[in-house]
Structures are given as structure tokens and as C-alpha cells.
Amino acid sequence: MPAGAGKHLAMYNFGLHVAAYESHAVESFRLREAANFEAAAHARGFIGRSGYAGEPGAACWGEQVFPRFIEGSGFQTAPSSLSLWTDIESLMAFTYSGVHADALKGARHWNVRQSWPPLVLWWVDAGDVPEWKDGVERLEHLHDHGASPTAFSFKQSYGPDGRPQKIDRLRIKEIAALNAVGQTELLAHVLTLKV
Question: What is the C-alpha separation between 109 and 32, in angstroms, rounded?
């Protein structure tokens, strides 16, 4: 059985756009956003994600706050997401293939270069729902102290037992192949969008 019995993997990411969300410079991100959420919702291993206060869709997991890296940016809000997965391989399969991989190719056009980790991972008990503040605290902890069972990344990951984890690359490929079947139409759509 992947991951630990009774544990789920939490993921929080945070970035800054090169311009306002509504701007022409960020249009290609905006055009792909709904497709990315749709692809995640149908990905193997996806449990759920936080929505955003005042927007239709998924419920917001607590008040949305942002890490200290937003200070001095001129923005009051920034692109970030918070989600739960069954295991790291499922999250990596979603992240680096299909619809989301297409979005990653264009990220350098609409995001500023980061001096902080792009995402943070940590384990929670099954049934627990992390809040935005938890993601912010973990991201700052990873930046300040490096990877540990408290806060880690794909490059240096830890299992639910707190020990360093070896990622199963073959399993990632298998999951990505399964996800691809359900993403055919979505991927065809995003490939028609401007970069």
C-alpha cells in the first residue's frame, strides 16, 4: 500500500506573477487555470483542494494568507494552492505530465523567479484538512531550515514515518499513463491556448 496507513500528503505552493492576474502578461496562466483544477480533480491519488473565499467551487480551507515572500511585491494576493493527495507519486504524476506539465512550460513567462521553494509537502492524518496558514508556515520552515519530515519537497522527501523516502519512478509513469486517458480532451484544449 502506498504512503502510510491513515496519512495523506498535503501540498502548498506559492508564486508571484509578473503582473496583475487580470493583465495580458498573465493571460495564458488565467486561460489554463480551470483546466488544471479539472485535471487534478480526475487525477489518481487526488483527495481534494482548497477553494478561494468568495469564489464558486471548492470550500476555502481557512482564511487565505500568504508567506512573507509576498512582502514588497506590490500584490495583496498571489497564486497559491493547497491540496491533499494519497502519496507523493500521485502528486508527481499529476505535476509533471499532461495538462499541468503544459502549464509548467509557460510558468517562466508569467511568474517571477523565486528565491523561495516553489512548494512544500508534509503528511497529515487522514481526515485532517490543512488550512492556508499551515501551508504558509511549512513553506517558510522549508525555506529557513531545509527539508525535514516537518516540511519537504520532491527533491528531498520523507515518508509518513518520518524517514527519508525513495520515490518510485516507475509508479509515477504508470499513474501518469492512467491520468492521460482521462485528460485527452483537456490536454487537446490547453495545447490550443497561447503560451
Answer: 13
Judged by average pLDDT, the poorest of 87-96, 104-113, 127-136 is 104-113
What's the pLDDT band for 157 if we cut at 50, 70, 90? very high
Which 3 state secondary structure label does DSSP give 12? strand
Q: Which three cell numbers stand for residue 61?
A: 480551507
Q: In this predicted structure, what is the pLDDT of residue 15?
A: 95
Report the Cα 90 to chain-centroid distance in Å: 12
Inter-CA distances, 158 with 151, 154, 155, 162, 166, Å: 9, 9, 10, 6, 8
Residue 157 burial class via C-beta count within 10 angstroms: exposed 0-12, middle 13-18, buried 19 and up: middle
Q: Find the angle CA(125)-CA(126)-CA(131) to the nearest 5 degrees.
A: 70
98-110 vs 27-41: helix crossing angle, rounded to 10? 160
Taking 90 as the threshold, does the pLDDT of residue 43 lie above it? yes
185 confidence band (pLDDT: 50, 70, 90): confident
Residue 120 to residue 177: CA distance in whole angstroms: 25
Decide: residue 48, CB within 10 A, 0-12 exposed, 13-18 middle, 19+ buried: middle
Burial of 30 per CB tally in 10 Å (0-12, 13-18, 19+): middle
